[in-house]
Amino acid sequence: MTSLKPQPGIMDIVPYVGGRESADGATRVFKLSANETPLGPSPKAVQAFRAVGDNLEIYPDGSGLALREAIAARFGLNADRIVCGAGSDELLHLLAQCYLGPGDEAIVSEHGFLVYPIITKAAGAKVITVAETDFTATVDAFLAAQTNATRVVFLANPNNPTGTYIPTDEVRRLRAGLRDDVLLVLDAAYAEYVRRNDYEAGIEMVATHDNVVMTRTFSKIYGLAALRLGWAYCPEAVADVLNRVRGPFNVNTPALMAGVAAMKDQAHVERAADHNEKWAEWLTREISALGLEVLPASANFLSIRFPDVDGRRAADADNFLMKRGLILRGVGAYGMPDFLRLSVGGEEANRLVVEALTEFMGDRS
Ligand SMILES: *Cc1c(COP(=O)(O)O)cnc(C)c1O
Questions:
Q1: Domain range annotation of the chain
Q2: Which whole number is the average pLDDT over 160-177?
Q3: What pTM did the predictor assign?
Q4: 130, 166, 132: which is closest to 145 by C-alpha?
């Protein structure tokens, strides 16, 4: 028995389990469990990454200036208010560390991204979970849960794993109902995939309010998950706080250089978004036609509900698909035991998933 005692809350954390990577026995494997892009990163980003290999003895630019300027130019932002991190994950952790402590509360939604409870508990604060309606975050539920102890509200928009989003006017109503000393964290990891007129990632809200932060990532549409790169657009005071606490060289040079090249290659981003729109629609149509419920997908993944019938449950489907090398993501940990989450893949993978599900749902007598 160790006598070492971690800080309060830490032993209450249920460790995060990522999407599986391997399928025993299958000869070809399609990993559709982590919402990675089937198109990969921009070739220009790969080239920039490789070029760094000759100078690995040099520390990164701790201010990440080139990357912040590339992001600022792309979105019309103030570069001083951008903070980069080792994945948006690091930025979310830092936000929790800086704005939550023992006695404080953070509000999350029922099927919200599981990183939020982890970082809230790691900071010693309490997680308040509020109900969703039709697997969609509900502004009224967030507002009803606000107490004097509330310090942070975490909202993934679109949310993972449900894939649902809430429109800009609802996000505005949420912020307007929060006290000025409550920080609204808008996690827009999938923003580039959303093609809806009533959706905004949150840039304008950050620009016009002191208590909203938006986080973004290079892991999803930019295809740089291996490099761990994300950014936050912050009110001036929040950027100042994060810059005091983050590691001085928290983002490595290969990530910074690849990130700059990826940000400048918006044609690649467009291609990925086009591919996704086409195949997310196709998968939704084909899978719904099998009699399975598919939640309305606004990002690059689908949540598929399986019937509560022997041999047809989510776990059965998971095993069935796995034997064919198709790796999906069980989301029981998200309170959705009858669902599997499917990342939109390349054409071949998408067709194989529909073929396999057709067989799974068909008469197998
Ligand atoms: C994938 C994902 C992220 C991205 O995390 P990184 O640390 O940037 O790789 C953030 N939020 C949500 C909701 C996600 O699904």
A1: 10-40+267-361, 43-265
A2: 98
A3: 0.96
A4: 130
